[in-house]
Amino acid sequence: MIGRSLKRDIASTTSRENSLPTPALSALPLTPIRAVGLAIHATNATRVTDQMFIEAAHSVADQVTPEQLKLGMLFPPQSNILEVEIQTAARVAKLVFDAGLARVDRPANMEAFIRRHLYKPEYQTLR
Q: Which pLDDT score is estimated for 9?
């Protein structure tokens, strides 16, 4: 509870001091963690490194547009969360392959490779 209210206080104060709208707090701060997990799963990485989380954080930050930054947004919009995670996981997967930590062959198209490893809830029709 303290962390949540502290985040809200900081966001409200920052917005007020800079005449910006208060940003919505959401699950987007977890996006780098989920993307690292997806990349590890897809590449069957032999280990997890700090650099993977750093790359994921950079990737998420790089996906915030200048217009969104002017609005005080620190993360891409929640409406685009799946695409943000896919792009982030693709960057982390590239790092995994570059570091020689993958236990699968390097794909020609990293984004398509990541998309193939997404969970898709598909159910058979029962008769």
A: 53
Q: Domain spans of the chain?
A: 26-116
Give the span between the Cα atoms of 50 and 116, in whole angstroms: 25
The DSSP secondary structure of 48-95, one letter per residue, reads --HHHHHHHHHHHHHTS-HHHHHTT-SS--GGGHHHHHHHHHHHHHHH
pLDDT at 74: 84
Q: Are residues 60 and 75 in contact, defined by beta-carbon separation less than 8 angstroms?
A: yes
The CATH code of the domain at 26-116 is 3.40.50.10380
- CB under 8 Å to 51, separation ≥6 — which residues? 95, 99
pLDDT at 11: 52
In this predicted structure, what is the pLDDT of residue 122?
83
- What's 30's DSSP letter? G
Contacts of 74 (CB under 8 A, 6+ apart): 23, 64
Give the pLDDT of residue 121: 83
Q: Which residues of the chain have pLDDT under 50?
A: 1-7, 14-15
